[in-house]
Amino acid sequence: MEEKYNHQAQGYPLASPSMPRSDQEYTTTNYQPSQTLAKWKKIRLRRLAYLAFVASTLATLVLVITLVFFRATTPRARLADVELTGAATGDGLRLTGRVSVSNRNFARYEFESSLATVRAADGMYAGRFVIHDEHVRARSTARVYVVADLSRPSTVNGLSDYRVESRLKGRVRILRVFRRNRLTVLNCTMTVDLTTNGVRNLRCY
Questions:
Q1: How much is the pLDDT for 7?
Q2: What is the pLDDT of residue 153?
Q3: How far apart are CA 102 and CA 80, in angstroms?
Q4: Nearest CA-CA partner of 97 in 81, 78, 86, 116
Q5: Number of domains in the chain
């Protein structure tokens, strides 16, 4: 009887140690690959979220740089340091001063030569002067010296109002590659005391 049992036992060999011994162990063994897959999914989602964050940050940075550095604003022109003396010939006035062009861009601004017209309060032509071409560095101001001979108007109280107007055609050069055309307008008014040749209420708009 014992020999028969041994013979049957030899017909059914034992399973290898790596095989699960029970249903619980089988379930635990099959659960490990699923747990590893879920872990890799979490890692992949974290990487995708990190890449999306980096991409959005770079896009925002590029947008800010484009709006700040590649945006071309119109420079401002003003008339300053105006002095009046008697003209060398005739009964007129000699106007001297400086036209300052303020460039607020992060790129250089270049403008062409232009004529500025000086008119009296009634719109009558009084004189003109040349604003020579110049280039203005980024975030700086250039000053151009100007001279004009003006006609002396006849007034009762010795005061006369003048308006100075000009248009400066120029361009903003961004990275020496892109060019943006900009028209700078010079529009200033002043009151001249003809008795002392003094300048009052010089304003630019």
A1: 52
A2: 80
A3: 12
A4: 81
A5: 2
Place of tokens 């500025």: 116
Domain boundary among 69, 96, 111: 69
Average pLDDT, consecutive stretches of 10 residues, N- to C-terminus, the chain (205 residues): 53 54 52 73 88 91 76 94 80 92 94 97 93 96 96 83 97 86 97 91 96
Residue length of the chain = 205
Question: Same domain for 100 and 121?
Answer: yes
In a domain, 2, yes or no: no
Distance CA 170, CA 100 (A): 14
Q: Tell whether 137 and 41 lie within a shared domain.
A: no
Does residue 27 belong to any structural domain of this protein? Answer: yes
pLDDT at 169: 97
Domain that holds residue 24: 19-69
Pair 103, 39 in one domain: no
Q: Report d(CA 172, CA 74) in Å as an integer.
A: 9
Residue 43: per-residue pLDDT: 87
Q: Which two tokens stand for residue 7?
A: 């013979």
Dihedral, 58, 59, 62, 66 alpha carbons, nearest 10: -170
